[in-house]
Amino acid sequence: MVHVLNAVPEKAKNQVQQLLVNANVDIKIKKKRHTKHGDFRRMLNGSSVITINRTSNSYRFLITLLHELAHFKVSELTNYRVKPHGEEWKMAYREILLPFLNPEIFPEPLCSLLAAHMINPKASTDRDYALVMALKKYDSPTLTVPIIEINNGQQFKLENGRVFEKLKKRRTRFECKELKSGRIYLFSPQVEVFPVSAPLFSSNPISSLR
Predict the structure, then answer these.
(1) pTM above 0.85?
(2) How far apart, in whole angstroms, are the C-alpha atoms of residue 139 and residue 49?
């Protein structure tokens, strides 16, 4: 439990400790994963495991922890199959999050944004743009920017070195072309990318050969 308490805001430690003291769940801190902040699994032997990405942002860590503990609570209370982020999970998440909605734990505007978020919580906080941008202010300094801040037609790189060109917006996501393969991918607005100041590849290889 010590490794978890060291990762949450100071003012939240006592409440987190009380929340975990009787929770029969193993919590593991993992290296950063780009597809998720955390997850919950019920193992074949009946044990429960929560994994959370390692981060210097204690507010993000706490939100992810409470999100996954809501999954754990649902698994303990229901003996039937339910939707991962259905009404059962939403109710459990509200009950777990509510005692932490305190400006001493979450500074404004995080506290107010979380209060609005919990009315109808999404499957991921990444779908709540205002909350994501507020949380980003507490991340360690980085050279990345949210893809929403990239101009259409501009190139960007991912951490793995893949290069894309931002094309256009499709409802809630951005259509981007991987320049090496030509394939089209959809990115959420808050995905962090490395802007490319000078084009690394031509988006039109044929014309570049003329």
Answers:
(1) no
(2) 26
**What letter does residue 147 receive in the DSSP assignment?**
G
User: What is each CA distance from 198 to 151, 157, 158, 183, 201, in whole angstroms?
Assistant: 13, 12, 15, 21, 9
Q: Alpha-carbon distance 196 to 200, whole Å?
A: 8
- Burial (CB < 10 A; 0-12, 13-18, 19+), residue 1, is exposed
* Contact (Cβ atoms closer than 8 angstroms) between residue 163 and residue 155: yes
- Higher-confidence residue of 198 and 182: namely 182
Q: In this predicted model, what pLDDT tens digit does every residue of 11-22 receive, in sequence order?
A: 999 999 999 998
Give the strand order in the sheet containing 145-146. Answer: 145-146, 192-195, 155-157, 163-170, 173-178, 184-187
For residue 104, count CB atoms less than 10 angstroms from its CB and return exposed for 0-12, middle for 13-18, buried for 19 or more. Answer: exposed
Look at residues 97, 102, 125, 123 and name the one whose alpha carbon lies nearest to residue 112: 102
Name which of 48, 46, 28 is nearest 38 in CA terms.
28
Those residues whose C-beta lies under 8 Å from the C-beta of residue 32, and which sit 6 or more positions away, are: 53, 54, 55
Start-to-end C-alpha separation, the chain: 63
Q: 52-85, pLDDT tens digit by residue?
A: 999 999 999 999 999 999 999 999 888 777 888 9
Exposure of 71 by Cβ count < 10 A (0-12 exposed, 13-18 middle, 19+ buried)?
buried
